[in-house]
Design a protein that fits this description.
67 residues; mainly alpha; 2 helices; Hypoxia_induced_domain; HIG1 domain-containing protein
Length: 67
């Protein structure tokens, strides 16, 4: 499974979601100008990245279930 390119892309997409989420939570916890300026944008990016990650997970499960 670790040699499967789709699995690797899927894991990278999930790590991107976690990274964006941690950046957003960190900015929220710190507050200040960064949070006011970037909080909504970061959460929109997280939702988009999460959508891509879910699509990749579904594709992976569907393709592996067929074989």
């Amino acid at each position: 499974m670790l040699n499967d390119p789709l699995f690797i892309v899927m894991v990278i997409a999930m790590l991107v979601v976690v990274g964006i989420l941690m950046l957003g939570i960190g900015g929220f916890a710190k507050g200040g100008e960064f949070n006011r300026k970037h909080a909504n944008r970061l959460m929109r990016y997280r939702i988009a990245a999460q959508f891509v990650a879910v699509l990749l997970i579904m594709a992976f499960v569907w393709l592996r279930g067929r074989s």
